[in-house]
Design a protein that fits this description.
The chain contains 3 helices and 10 strands; from the N terminus they run H-H-E-E-E-E-H-E-E-E-E-E-E. 28% of the residues lie in helices and 35% in strands.
């Protein structure tokens, strides 16, 4: 049992590390028009943590686990594995003020629609790695990929700023 847990932690940390270390390279390859869209996604507004409605999809290996509209804003999140941590866009210094985030949206959907999720907290990334949703685990062969409007997030799920109408997806993705 301990060996499986250690293996999962190593695989998850490696996947998260690879995702975060390759993000700057991907960002450099973004066309100017896409850069403007990303910049607009990260601009500040008067009330940056005002609740927004987003469309959330959770796709497991065997089909759809959740699909619906979620009203969310950045907030503290509690998981069995990761404990209680902030998940409000200020993680890792991503934003100066609190903002709605993908992982906060997943947490709100879970609480409002009666399903569970769990995630490991990584202090070095100041973010969660989603491990399970509705009992479906990435295990040692997959991870939960986060995308917004069809594009993988370049930062963690507690760091990316959501805006009203965004399409957020957590997708079980094999290595």
């Amino acid at each position: 049992m301990h060996r499986t847990t250690v293996h999962r932690a190593l695989v998850t940390a490696t996947a998260l590390g690879l995702a975060l270390t390759t993000a700057p390279a991907a960002a450099q390859a973004v066309p100017a028009s896409a850069s403007a869209h990303i910049a607009a996604h990260h601009t500040s507004h008067a009330n940056t943590n005002a609740p927004v409605k987003v469309r959330l999809t959770v796709q497991g290996p065997d089909g759809l686990l959740f699909k619906g509209r979620v009203r969310t804003k950045g907030h503290d999140v509690t998981t069995a594995t990761g404990g209680t941590r902030k998940c409000d866009g200020t993680n890792g210094g991503a934003h100066a003020t609190k903002v709605p985030t993908p992982t906060a949206a997943l947490d709100d959907a879970a609480r409002r629609h009666g399903f569970t999720w769990d995630g490991t907290w990584y202090a070095s990334f100041d973010d969660f790695s989603v491990d399970t949703v509705k009992g479906v685990s990435g295990g040692g062969s997959a991870y939960w990929n986060i995308s917004v409007n069809g594009t993988p997030t370049p930062v963690g799920g507690c760091q990316f700023r959501l805006k009203a109408g965004d399409r957020v997806a957590f997708t079980w993705t094999s290595f």
